[in-house]
Design a protein that fits this description.
By secondary structure, the chain is α/β, with parallel strands linked by helices. It is globular. The protein has 4 domains: 128 residues, 3-Layer(aba) Sandwich (Rossmann fold); 166 residues, Rossmann fold (3-Layer(aba) Sandwich); 71 residues, Helicase, Ruva Protein, domain 3 (Orthogonal Bundle); 56 residues, Arc Repressor Mutant, subunit A, CATH 1.10.10. The protein contains 20 helices and 14 strands.
């Protein structure tokens, strides 16, 4: 028998013979098995291995099973843990249950009992994920708001493409909601019960991107003190979002292309072929055609990814969606921050509707959150000028103040830098490059004005 999707099981036992027996049993049933010989190793490697369930020995040298269980459940409450012991007692079983153990089995482990318990644990995990997914849909954090023709076309495309296995390339400016589209594709696909793993290629140093994607073996390079599971393995059976793929190095692009063509790869420093079943969705704010001409992006990878191109329109091209977006973000902010409901008058809506929104929906969301927190009851047109940095009237307000020349320069510089950082999604390196200044200089300015990214 084999599982439809390869679930990953972590074995934690200081007896090699027990680990070998369990590994043989579980791998025969089609499970992907990792093992460690101590509780401390389990705690350190849990994020790299990303197991769907853990089988944990109670009596181990060093950190024992009960303490390991407690620490695992404190940080990874959703992962079911099955305890094994050579001397089972009612008291131990009760204690294990109180600490969050899924089940409690005695050694030597009975094959059928182990398999039934694993199946039940994985079924519980699947139900938990489904409950989380349903709650998210009800609460609406990933809701795609808008009914303009371009948004209707986008939603129709997602509905047609999501159930397929086709690779998708999502393009659009910063802040338009490319990640939202990717999550909608995953949520409506046959892979929705498995994980969607996201990688921001622009945020990872180029020398580490291959290790991040494909994992590495112990000793593969300086600092590789243990084996690491890469994002492709973590996404096995699910979806992998390669965000900002236009910033990926050419060597990493070549390896990604090989995985897409062969469905297999080797970890950095390893020689074992690892097969994966992953649907890849890529996203970028760059014009990849131009990047190809300049030698920064592989044309063969572009064609492999661009099976289904999806373009997310900027907010300025769908201004009729701004009023419902404002009300959606107002409700969301009030609910999240436990604030009384906020209203907004039509004049304020029109002012917001007329703004440039270079940062697109992300910028609008941040602005609405700021207004909801700063304004009591109803938001009016004057509040836009007062609280929206760079909004209509903000510069006029600054000009009308009794300021020294240096104070005026500081206030306008602060407004300008905040807008540029929001436009480039707080990518400091790129913002500095676009402004033609050193990154260290921009960091000094950020510290000087106390600029902080608003969580959205």
């Amino acid at each position: 028998m084999s599982t439809a999707l390869k679930h990953r099981i972590l074995l934690v036992d200081d007896e090699r013979s027990i680990r070998d027996t369990l590994r043989m049993t579980l791998e025969y049933e089609g499970y992907d098995v990792s093992d460690v010989d101590s509780g401390m190793k389990a705690i350190k490697q849990i994020d790299d291995i990303r197991p769907d369930a853990v089988i944990l020995d109670v009596k181990m040298s060093g950190l024992d099973g009960m303490e390991t269980l407690e620490r695992l459940k404190a940080t990874h409450a959703h992962i079911p843990v099955i305890l094994l012991t050579g001397h089972g007692t009612i008291e131990t079983a009760v204690e294990a249950t109180k600490k969050g153990a899924f089940d409690f089995l005695t050694k030597p482990p009975d094959r059928e009992k182990i398999l039934i318990t694993i199946r039940n644990a994985l079924r519980q995990t699947s139900l938990l994920r489904e409950n989380i997914r349903m709650r998210e849909e009800i609460e609406g954090p990933d809701e795609m708001v808008g009914s303009t023709p371009s948004m209707k076309a986008l939603k129709d495309t997602i509905a047609r493409v999501a159930p397929t296995e086709a690779y998708v390339l999502i393009t659009g400016e910063n802040g338009t909601g490319k990640e939202l589209v990717a999550r909608a594709l995953h949520r409506q696909s046959a892979r929705s019960e498995r994980e969607m793993v996201e990688v921001n290629c622009a945020a990872i140093p180029q020398e580490l991107i291959e290790s991040e994607l494909f994992g590495h073996e112990k000793g593969a390079f300086t600092g590789a003190t243990g084996q690491r599971i890469g994002k492709f393995e973590q996404a096995d059976g699910g979806t992998l979002l390669l965000d900002e793929i236009g910033d990926m190095s050419l060597s990493a692009q070549a390896k990604v292309l090989r995985v897409l063509e062969e469905g297999a790869f080797e970890r950095v420093g390893g020689n074992r072929r690892i097969n994966v079943d992953v649907r890849v969705i890529a996203a970028t704010n760059k014009e990849l055609g131009l990047e190809i001409k300049e030698g920064n992006f592989r044309e063969d990878l572009f064609h492999r990814l661009n099976v289904i191109p999806i373009h997310v329109p900027p907010l300025r091209e769908r201004r009729d969606d701004i009023p419902p977006l404002i009300r959606f973000f107002l409700d969301e902010t009030c609910r999240k921050n436990k604030l009384p409901p906020r209203g907004i008058d039509e004049a304020a809506v029109r002012k917001l509707q007329d703004m440039a929104w270079s940062g697109n929906v992300r910028e609008l969301r941040n602005v609405v959150e700021r207004l909801a927190i700063m304004v009591a009851e109803t938001i009016r047109a004057d509040d836009i000028a007062r609280y929206v940095v760079g909004g209509p009237g903000a510069l006029d307000d600054t000009l009308s103040m009794d300021l020294t020349f240096q104070e005026f320069k500081d206030r306008t510089e602060e407004m300008f830098l905040r807008r540029q950082l929001e436009h480039f999604d707080w990518n400091v390196s790129r913002t500095a490059d676009e402004l033609g200044i050193q990154r260290s200089h921009l960091y000094k300015k950020i510290n000087k004005y106390g600029l902080e990214r608003k969580e959205s």
